[in-house]
Amino acid sequence: MTGTATFAFRYLPSPIGRLTLVAGDEGLAAILWENDRPGRVRLGPLVPAPDHPVLNEAERQLRAYFGRELTAFNVPLSFTGTDFQKQVWRALLTIPYGEVRSYSDIARQIGKPAAVRAVGAANGRNPISIIAPCHRVVGMDGSLTGFAGGLEAKDYLLTLEGRRPAAITGDLFATAG
């Protein structure tokens, strides 16, 4: 988002690097990666907020997720993007913990089966990674594909959730034991 809106932020150390949590007036607006591509998520000015209620809750839930104590998030979200992007991001929220979908699956789910590349592009601009689980979207053959946090982070998150990507196990539906 561009303009005069101000966003609160704080850093969160995590097993996959330092994350930047960003909140607007209506909820969590972004989780940015340590080496995020500039401009991938458009936001207004960021101001440090050591005690913002949405950031407090997002941090609590992310810590529980990384500690394998949480499988579903319920922090309020505030997506900023095009209508199509928001449709894709809402579809991401329906992917259950420990499961994966292909870009084609998401395109079909939103009623646009030919929009596989556009779904991939929207997935790559997902501002609220992890909570809107774009890491759960893989190639048709189950292989790991692009991820703003890097493929190592994507593999880590899938493994945390009990999945081993097909590129590693050779079986899209295998789970780690």
Automatic annotation (TrEMBL):
Keywords on record: Cytoplasm, DNA damage, DNA repair, Methyltransferase, Transferase
Domain Methylguanine DNA methyltransferase ribonuclease-like: 10-78
Cross-referenced Gene3D superfamilies: Methylated DNA-protein cysteine methyltransferase domain, Winged helix-like DNA-binding domain superfamily/Winged helix DNA-binding domain
GO cellular component terms given for this protein: cytoplasm
Positions of the Methylated-DNA-[protein]-cysteine S-methyltransferase DNA binding domain: 83-162
The EC number(s) this enzyme carries: 2.1.1.63
Active-site annotation: 134
Recorded GO MF terms: methylated-DNA-[protein]-cysteine S-methyltransferase activity
Top EC class of this enzyme: transferase
Residues annotated as transmembrane: none
Location (main, coarse): cytoplasm
Subcellular location field: Cytoplasm
GO BP field: DNA alkylation repair; methylation
Catalytic activity: a 6-O-methyl-2'-deoxyguanosine in DNA + L-cysteinyl-[protein] = S-methyl-L-cysteinyl-[protein] + a 2'-deoxyguanosine in DNA; a 4-O-methyl-thymidine in DNA + L-cysteinyl-[protein] = a thymidine in DNA + S-methyl-L-cysteinyl-[protein]
NCBIfam families attached to this UniProt entry: ogt
Family according to the record: Belongs to the MGMT family.
Stated role: Involved in the cellular defense against the biological effects of O6-methylguanine (O6-MeG) and O4-methylthymine (O4-MeT) in DNA. Repairs the methylated nucleobase in DNA by stoichiometrically transferring the methyl group to a cysteine residue in the enzyme. This is a suicide reaction: the enzyme is irreversibly inactivated.
Note: This enzyme catalyzes only one turnover and therefore is not strictly catalytic. According to one definition, an enzyme is a biocatalyst that acts repeatedly and over many reaction cycles.
Name this polypeptide is given: Methylated-DNA--protein-cysteine methyltransferase
